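Feature request, filed as a ticket because there's no other form

It would be nice if the structure record came with a short human-readable summary line next to the tokens. Right now we just get the raw output. Example of a typical job, pasted below so the devs can see what we mean:
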Amino acid sequence: MELVGWILAVALAIAVVVLLLRRPGQRYASAVDRLTRDMERDDVVPASVSGDPPEVAALRHRLSEWRPVGEIPDEDPGERALRGLVRYLDGAVLQTLRQALHAPGGESAALIQEVLDALEDLQFYAAEPGGEEASKQDLVGLIQQAARDYTRETEIAVKLSFSSPSLRARVPADAFKDAVFLLLSNAGRFGEGRTVTVVAEESDEGIRVRIADRGEGFTDEALDRAFEPFWSTDHDAAGLGLTYVRRILDPFGMRVVLGNREQGGGEATIRLPRE
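Raw output as currently delivered:
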């Protein structure tokens, strides 16, 4: 899908956040309150409201164009993705901002930081891959580093298993580590914080890196739509992690496959072709 539209929405949302940080006041608080209430209703968001500051008015106008009315039969995938973007901006940005505007000083700063973190996530996913080239790497070391970074950030344990002390393949090192980290994050979220298992092994077809959680597993709909931009079963998730993983690995011949384990839980597998 085209990234321009939702990058514009992110830019507008960031402008609102910066304004709220720099020029707090009842006028901005009231405008964000009105916009949040309008987005919580089922009908279309009004394109303009008297008294909105220009920056909030611009965000309102953009959201009014994208806000769908109910389900759209046979809708374009791009329209569906934009609907997911609106959901994310509504839940992770506007509603949190609304809480921040009415919270005590300390709580307000923490909530605004949550908004900035959410917007930074969108900026991360929007960035074009940096043109990194593949080179011969030890996957064991890359996976261990990604697991350490993930555990340090989340305090969720990761159990590692390797079929050999060294598994070498031509991969873009940073992109591969990002992919493993994002798949760990997905497993940790849907495994409700329980230990995530990573198994890396060689097979006749190539190397397989399996990342498994201990949650309820993927629904049929999730298996069908998991790579769709802005689709998620978690209301406050951007729904871009798996999309991004596929985007950075596909050019190097690596595939990501999802499934459920017989013993329970979901599993994401990175398949590296044999050289």
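Something like this underneath would help us a lot:
The first strand starts at residue 135 and ends at 138.
Strands lie at 135-138, 158-162, 168-171, 196-202, 206-212, 255-260, 266-273.
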